[in-house]
């Protein structure tokens, strides 16, 4: 009993020391920082006012559209790749494996450059539907599909094999059992990682600036960067960053809640 009390005291003393050191570091940084210069460069209210309403009606709207279009395309393509990865047909598995390794191994920036430059060179005179919106959806979709495919595959494999066997014993075909029984259960399992992928796509949408967008097609990063150049002040970039946080922090909280709920349900089972 005495040894346990001593261990708790040592742990409490260690935590107190760590908190004190953290407070000291924060105090030193706060004391050394030039808050006046920082405020003039990042928190100019008159400069921030110039961002509205375009920040919401153009930049944030486009960012959301780019993200959702890329997510939906990636989800559909990822589902196909995942099913090919689990197929009994060997060429399907090879193709799916190569696709996943290829697009997970390359930086998203190179994929965007290929979509913006490589496709027009490879297929002269062709235009993707939607113009820039189509290019962004394709770039984000190709990258996210590789990650979603592995997530979906893991979700399908997490469903007990007895579910498929029971469905087949009831007269379901393999395709009908997969669509009606297996996939709905798999998607309930993988909702948290898919939501996390949505957060990543929201940030990766900033790569659209490498496609040469028009003023009405700018997203948050491009919009803030252009205004920062016009005003010779970094407040627009700071405000654009706040917009990212306003969206990603609630989504991150949602991911944690979904994961906690999934873990709780698994614990009950």
UniProtKB/TrEMBL annotation:
Compartment annotation: Cell inner membrane; Cell membrane
Pfam families from the xrefs?
BPD_transp_1
Asked whether the UniProt record includes Transmembrane helix among its keywords, one would answer: yes
* Primary role: Part of the binding-protein-dependent transport system for glutamine; probably responsible for the translocation of the substrate across the membrane.
Membrane topology, as annotated, equals: Multi-pass membrane protein
What's this protein's name?
Amino acid ABC transporter permease
The family annotation for this protein states: Belongs to the binding-protein-dependent transport system permease family. HisMQ subfamily.
Which InterPro entries does the entry link to? AA_ABC_transptr_permease_3TM (IPR010065), ArtM/GltK/GlnP/TcyL/YhdX-like (IPR043429), MetI-like (IPR000515), MetI-like_sf (IPR035906)
Residue ranges annotated as transmembrane are 12-33, 64-84, 105-124, 237-255
In its UniProt entry, the species of origin is given as Pendulispora albinea
Q: Which UniProt keywords apply?
A: Amino-acid transport, Cell membrane, Membrane, Transmembrane, Transmembrane helix, Transport
Task: Note whether NADP occurs among the keywords.
Answer: no
What residues does the ABC transmembrane type-1 domain cover?
60-255
């Amino acid at each position: 009993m005495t040894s346990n009390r001593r261990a708790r005291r040592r742990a409490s003393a260690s935590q107190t020391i760590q908190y004190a050191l953290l407070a000291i570091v924060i105090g030193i940084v706060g004391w050394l920082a030039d808050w006046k210069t920082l405020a003039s460069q990042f928190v100019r209210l008159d400069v921030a006012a110039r961002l509205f309403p375009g920040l919401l009606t153009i930049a944030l709207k486009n960012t959301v559209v780019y993200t959702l279009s890329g997510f939906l395309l990636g989800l559909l393509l990822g589902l196909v790749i995942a099913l090919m990865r689990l197929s009994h047909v060997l060429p399907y598995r090879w193709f799916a494996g190569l696709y996943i390794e290829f697009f997970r191994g390359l930086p998203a920036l190179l994929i965007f450059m290929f979509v913006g430059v490589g496709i027009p060179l490879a297929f002269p005179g062709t235009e993707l539907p939607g113009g820039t919106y189509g290019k962004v959806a394709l770039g984000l979709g190709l990258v996210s599909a590789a990650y979603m495919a592995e997530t979906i595959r893991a979700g399908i494999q997490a469903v007990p094999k007895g579910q498929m066997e029971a469905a087949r014993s009831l007269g379901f075909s393999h395709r009908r059992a997969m669509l009606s029984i297996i996939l709905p259960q798999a998607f309930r399992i993988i909702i948290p990682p898919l939501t996390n992928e949505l957060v990543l796509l929201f940030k990766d949408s900033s790569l659209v600036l490498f496609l040469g967008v028009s003023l009405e097609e700018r997203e948050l990063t491009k919009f803030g960067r252009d205004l920062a150049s016009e005003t010779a002040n970094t407040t627009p970039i700071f405000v654009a960053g706040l917009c990212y946080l306003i969206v990603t922090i609630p989504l991150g909280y949602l991911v944690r809640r979904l994961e906690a709920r999934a873990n709780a349900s698994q614990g009950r089972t």
